[in-house]
Specification:
Helix content is about 35%, strand content about 25%. The protein contains 6 helices and 7 strands. The longest helix is centred in the first third of the chain and has 20 residues. The radius of gyration is 16 Å and the shape is elongated.
């Protein structure tokens, strides 16, 4: 059975590979704007469903399409990918010494059949100095990540605690995805 990942994220590519799945990549051409008046879980679900729908229309009804979207929520504010270093520093300043939620919505679609879910993981940062924030931003790691950090890289030095699926923070809730893939006849174990 052919599997298509509707994402250009290297982290999602890596995680699907770790699940033992063979897949190809088709990048969706959609507007991923986050200014929709939806709660974070519904927002990431809606965007992942749009990505999956767009790629399914391109590849046809046979392949299983997997799409995802991730956002960080802090005190009711959504933090997507920073557009510049100033915004990355601002985001990290907000998260310093605070807890926040990471939401990832994912959709598995084959033809007209689709299952969409989301996961939430609670992450707590240690207190960060302005110098530490500047040094981390200077690595350029924060620039393509929701909330301006990557838990799997140097950003792990910022994280004091986590409750929930670690892989969700990387951008793909592997355990939940594996359960949904079973519904489509794909087993990872």
């Amino acid at each position: 059975m052919e599997i298509v990942l509707a994402s250009q994220s290297p982290r999602r590519r890596e995680l699907l590979g770790q699940m033992g799945l063979k897949f190809r990549i088709v990048v969706p051409d959609i507007d991923e704007h986050m200014d929709r008046p939806l709660p974070p879980d519904q927002l990431v679900e809606a965007i992942s469903a749009e990505k999956a729908r767009a790629v399914a229309a391109e590849v046809g009804p046979g392949p299983i399409v997997i799409a995802a979207d991730t956002v960080v929520a802090w005190k009711g504010r959504l933090l997507g990918k920073p557009v510049n270093e100033t915004q990355a520093k601002e985001m990290l300043g907000h998260l310093s010494g605070e807890g926040h939620q990471v939401y990832t919505g994912f959709t598995v679609r084959q033809g007209d059949r689709a299952v969409t879910q989301s996961e939430c993981t609670l992450v707590t940062f240690r207190s960060l100095s302005a110098e530490e924030i500047a040094a981390y931003v200077a690595t350029n790691e924060p620039m393509d990540k929701a909330g301006a950090y990557g838990i799997q890289g140097l950003g792990s030095l910022l994280v004091e605690g986590i409750r929930g699926d670690y892989f969700n923070v990387m951008g793909l809730p592997v355990c939940a995805l594996g359960q949904v893939l079973k519904q489509f006849g794909v087993t990872c174990l």
